[in-house]
Amino acid sequence: MNESLHPLIKPLLAGNRRAIARAITAFEAGAPEAASLATAIAPHLGRAHVIGITGAPGAGKSTLINALLGELLARSKRVGVVAVDPSSPISGGAVLGDRVRMAEHGSHESVFVRSVASRGHLGGLSRATSRIVDVMDAAGFDTIIVETVGAGQSEVEIAKIGDTRIVICPPGLGDGIQAIKAGILEIADILVVNKGDSPLAARTARDLQEMLHLRRASAPKVAVLVTTATTGEGVPALVDKIAEHRGATGVGTRLRPHAEAPSVDDVAAVDAALRARDAKQFHPTPVTQATVATILAAAHRAVAGHANRPWRIRALAGEPLGRLLNLLVEAGFQPVSTGATAALIFTADHQLDRGDWLEYGMFVLAVLAAARARGVECSCRGDLAPYHEVVETALGLGANEVVVFAAKLGYTDVVQRAADSPEPGPEIVTFAGFDR
Fold first, then answer.
1. How far apart are CA 46 and CA 52, in angstroms?
2. In angstroms, rounded to a whole number, what is the distance separating the alpha carbons of residues 237 and 151?
3. What is the mean pLDDT of residues 397-404?
4. 105 within 8 A of 66, measured Cβ to Cβ
5. Helix (H) or strand (E) holding 362
6. 261 SS3 class
7. What is the C-alpha R_g of the chain?
8. Alpha-helix runs per DSSP H in 33-114
9. Could you read off the pLDDT of 226-269 as tens digits, one per residue?
10. Does residue 309 or residue 109 have the better pLDDT?
11. Dihedral pair phi/psi, residue 158, rounded to 5°
12. Measured distance CA(434)–CA(375) in Å, rounded
């Protein structure tokens, strides 16, 4: 089912470069099709080893990555690179391009390099970095290198994505280590002093080793290596150490659950889901019973209160859904979209009390959010009340049941979004006692 969920998925899984580029663009642009694409590639993730590379500007990150590409290619690896650059103040795009950064190996058939603009996103990465990594993972790359924008201590977001985190330090860091060790140096699995031909490189490596000796005994062991990216010296040893770390810790760090506050991007995704409006056209790909059951279970857990609530949900697909829709149309009901492959009919006891109605509304909203989080468009309609008898006959409703809502479910690339509106004014919301 997942292979047919999105037209790009088959060529993407086959490693087609055009499909990879189009999928990355969809995530970068926040295209409507991105949700269904994310759902389609989800079962194919977790195979690639993601290497996060960060460090101060001027440390030689790009040059070292070029050297790493040469060594990994010599070991028959397929490598994807996500290079996050500062945004152009004119175009908003990446200031540096991938052909400039990895010219020697960037055109190799086993390498795919994508430069992306940070566009002001904090943490050294682009808003879509994790999704771009997912695309390369699904496309079958063995190793994915993520290079941060090089902004300094805020680079710690790479810890959420990288399986192996490498911090590159320029020679002569000296006392500067103390100023930044609480930031990016603390996330390192491997510390690399690049430009090893500098007379200050050996001293910097010793300073880093001394800093590591001050850590608590239970802290993970961190290797300190010296490389000269321009000549390749020390690069094979670095690749060996990366492979050793992978063997010890595994892959898929970004896919594991983390007990942490939601990111800015998580909040934006929820806001976008809440602003979505009625879809007019759906793909023929069916929404499975398992998917609907997962959505309803997530919404059920989200609502407090007693387990046996005084409402019911009928989930319909296939012939039962078609039969009900035909009966409704014959009775004068006007569908506003086509192609939905599943529907939910929400009913309630006609004597529902005020508290239960409140919980029911929360439940319906939770269903909507849980569906859209899984790439399924869920559009609710509250205009089935005049057709209660039709629904009652078709579904065999109980004597005390009334139809409250209907929701259609399906996969779509085009979702109408509510226009931006001003914040609620004092006629709706009043505040008291807050510190501004």
1. 15
2. 27
3. 83
4. yes
5. helix 354-373
6. coil
7. 27
8. 34-41, 61-74, 98-101
9. 999 999 999 999 999 999 999 998 999 888 765 454 454 555 56
10. 109
11. -65, -20
12. 37
CA distance 349 to 309: 10
Q: How far apart are the first and last CA of the chain?
A: 51
Q: Among residues of the chain, what percentage have pLDDT more than 70?
A: 74
List, in order, residues 6 or more apart from 400 with CB less than 8 Å away: 349, 350, 351
Burial of 133 (0-12, 13-18, 19+ CB in 10 A): buried
Lowest mean pLDDT among 138-142, 155-159, 169-173, 429-433: 155-159
Residue environment code for 79-111, b if the CB has 16+ CB neighbours within 10 A, otherwise e: bbbbbbbbbeeeeeebeeebeebbeebbeeebb
At residue 5 the predicted structure's pLDDT band, cuts being 50, 70 and 90, is low
Q: Tell me the DSSP string of 150-179.
A: --SGGGGGGGGT-SEEEEEE-TT-TTHHHH
410, two tokens: 């399906």
Measured CA to CA, the distance from residue 123 to residue 145 in angstroms comes to 17
Q: How far apart are CA 147 and CA 96, in angstroms?
A: 12
Burial of 211 (0-12, 13-18, 19+ CB in 10 A): middle
Q: How confident is the model at residue 272 (pLDDT cuts 50, 70, 90)?
A: low
Q: What CA–CA distance (Å, rounded) separates 299 from 301?
A: 5
Quote the CA–CA distance of 297 and 159 in Å, as a whole number: 31
Q: Which two tokens stand for residue 399?
A: 């004597």
Q: What is the DSSP code string of 108-136?
A: STTEEEEEEE-TT-SSSS-TTHHHHHHHH
d(CA 121, CA 104): 29
Tokens of 256: 């594991």
Kindly report the number of other CB atoms within 10 A of residue 15's CB atom: 17
- Phi, psi angles (nearest 5°) of residue 289: -60, -40
**Residue for token pair 């902004």:** 151
Q: What is the pLDDT of residue 91?
A: 39
pLDDT bracket for residue 164 (50, 70, 90): very high
